[in-house]
């Protein structure tokens, strides 16, 4: 076996291993997204700007795209096809750029995004008395997190004629007057941060694997091109 062919085989199997890890990582992200969707199913009638619902959808999309990209990379490595490798490289590069852009946008504009999400939730609250699904979702949120309103319990005053929903208080009360002190948006956001830290660490590891997969796919493409020229 020539040195060029041995080098190609080495890069091929390294790329396959990294893409297999990448694919498994995508399965993990998708699985966490599914778990988060099931745990938040009681809140499904709330706007998607609710922290845990938006995170679940983001993980489902990211996991699905990662799985497809990882599979494409594995196939390209095994088949040694330049077309597949270049397609994989372009898709993965776009994915990495999108992730970096999204991370920067979330970091720079997090206050504006929080405000927009809270405004959407407050707007949705106006249908509390007429939309049974929305009413059930809000009641479930407030009972689960022991919170009241989006940013404050006074958010409900314009919705339910100066009073509070029964779900703002502990059970067994004829009328809810005081209500829980903590706002639901911050409570749900903190719950998400407490439970998703390991997912973020996992995401950083996947990012490192993505960079390595980019390098190996480019190396393998160049090695195949060189081998084809050598054969010619």
From TrEMBL:
Keywords: Disulfide bond, Membrane, Transmembrane, Transmembrane helix. The chain crosses the membrane at residues 12-38, 58-78, 85-109, 196-221. It is found in: Membrane. Pfam families: Tetraspanin. Its main location: membrane. PROSITE patterns: PROKAR_LIPOPROTEIN, TM4_1. It is a multi-pass membrane protein. Disulfide bonds join 148-168. The keyword Plastid does not apply. GO terms for cellular component: plasma membrane. Belongs to the tetraspanin (TM4SF) family. This is Tetraspanin. It comes from Oncorhynchus tshawytscha.
């Amino acid at each position: 076996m020539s040195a060029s062919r041995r080098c190609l085989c080495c890069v091929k199997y390294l790329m396959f291993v990294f893409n297999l890890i990448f694919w498994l990582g995508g399965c993990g992200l998708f699985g966490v997204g599914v778990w988060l969707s099931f745990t938040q199913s009681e809140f499904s009638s709330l706007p998607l700007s609710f922290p845990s619902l938006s995170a679940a959808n983001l993980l489902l999309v990211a996991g699905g795209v990662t799985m497809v990209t990882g599979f494409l990379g594995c196939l390209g490595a095994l088949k040694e096809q330049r077309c597949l490798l270049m397609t994989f490289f372009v898709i993965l590069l776009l994915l990495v750029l999108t992730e970096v852009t999204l991370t920067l946008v979330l970091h720079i504009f997090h206050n504006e995004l929080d405000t927009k999400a809270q405004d959407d939730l407050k707007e949705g609250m106006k249908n509390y008395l007429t939309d049974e699904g929305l009413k059930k979702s809000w009641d479930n949120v407030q009972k689960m997190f022991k919170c009241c309103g989006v940013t404050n319990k006074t958010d409900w005053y314009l919705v339910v004629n100066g009073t509070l929903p029964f779900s703002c208080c502990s059970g067994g009360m004829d009328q809810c007057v005081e209500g829980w002190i903590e706002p639901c948006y911050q409570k749900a956001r903190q719950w998400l941060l407490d439970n998703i830290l390991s997912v973020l660490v996992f995401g950083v590891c996947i990012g490192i694997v993505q960079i390595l997969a980019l390098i190996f796919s480019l190396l393998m493409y160049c090695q195949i091109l060189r081998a084809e020229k050598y054969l010619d």
